[in-house]
Design brief:
The protein folds into two domains: about 325 residues, Rossmann fold; about 130 residues, no CATH class. It contains 17 helices and 14 strands. About 50% of the residues are buried. Helix content is about 35%, strand content about 15%. By secondary structure, the protein is an alpha/beta fold.
Amino acid sequence: MKILRTMLAAILMTATFPALAQDADKAMAKSEKPDEAIPAPVRSITRHKGTFGGSAIAYTAIAGETYLKDKDGKPTAAIFATTYLKDNPEPNRPITFLFNGGPGSGSLWLHMGAFGPKRVNLPNAKDDGAPPYPITDNPESLLDVTDLVFIDPVGTGFSHALGKTEAKSFWGVTADAKSVAAFIRLWLTEHGRWNAPKFLGGESYGTTRSAAVVNELEGQYNDVGLNGVLLISTIMDFSLESDTEGNEMQFVILIPSMAATAQYHNKAGAGISTEAFVEQARAFAIGPYASALLKGKALPETERAAIRQQLASFTGLSEAYLENANLRVNASRFYKELLRDRGLTIGRLDSRYTGTDYDKAGETPDNDPSFYGIDAAYPAAMNTYVRGDLALKGIDRDYVSIGGVGEWDWKLGSRRDEQAYITVAPYLSRALRENSRLKIFVGQGYYDFATPFFAAEYSLGRPGFPDGRVEFNYYQAGHMMYVHDSDRVKLSNDIRAIIRRQK
């Protein structure tokens, strides 16, 4: 259980909120009486205009529910999604399906932060404060090159189980992927888009979901071919971030992120570009540092001293602290220690953010300043926008932004090794080998400790991945790089380019 809790904390966009999950479970149980008649799906259709990627676009928005059904045709779940369709589209217009992570997070972050036609405008690397939060047009939306569908899996957003079906039956790597894949097939049929170029994208655990959904769409039945998969702040291999004693890779994959962060806060890397300093840190991490950790107690004292000195030069931490930590500093300690002399902690989702703790002498931060710096603005913006501009009525449930699921089933198979070593990367490598036109886009922020970029590079660089089919792009921000204006523009342009190439 300790390992599972740790992995869950590593991939959440923020810490898990069990109280919220319990409240959501109680609300579902109270509102979904076994013999209560299931109402018709709720939908709202509105028409709009905007300028995206420099092109004027008239489009239709559809905000509402799609019912998943069992083999007997009985509804089991209502999947809420927001669809944007260009009016009078060109032939073979691409369609992109997007979701966020958690598990337990609604799609509001990508929707209202990056790719939807409207976005909430936040200060860069600062607390969002109190409302009102400005909701503005989003010229970086991808509507000029693709139609968009933002999906909320069961337990997130407005999506929920129906009738006698238990919500927890959807809460697991495979069960969740099956439900999202089922929704995509229903959507393609309803809108007549089976032969359109298709892209699938997710953020954080949404990248894990992307790989698992690819396996459902292009795996056993292979009925839905994809042109591209968009991975934003990627986590594929959960062993890399497990804090189990003896797991040395958890320390190796953090070194480049620590170097970028130490440089950002003027603790290391003076006089050199971020890219160059990070490249030096990569070479040190996978070379001398990894070798030293693998030697364990057999590490010679002279080599230990040299490693300690180099580690200090990359992390900005003192040699005395590194020695006391046995050359192994986990992320939580780094958040607290790097700026201790300034009385500040740094963020997990985005280490450019800083916060002030009650206890400056503690070992770990009170909270993540890069999450409480954005957490109020996005739900406020989503609820305002969907019930305002999109005219959604008939749904009185709260929009679950994060924390809406209970215990997650991490099993990928029945074999013991598959349960102990959880990685979905092989799903993508197989899809690349069996679909010659598929391309993987990877977007990573240098200051992201929730899903470190070096871990993404490691897991997507294993044998089995064809050369030249995985494209990495890097940003001068963290987990949600789109809070940084210039990076939001870059992210949009990078993805726009791959959609144009792959359609």
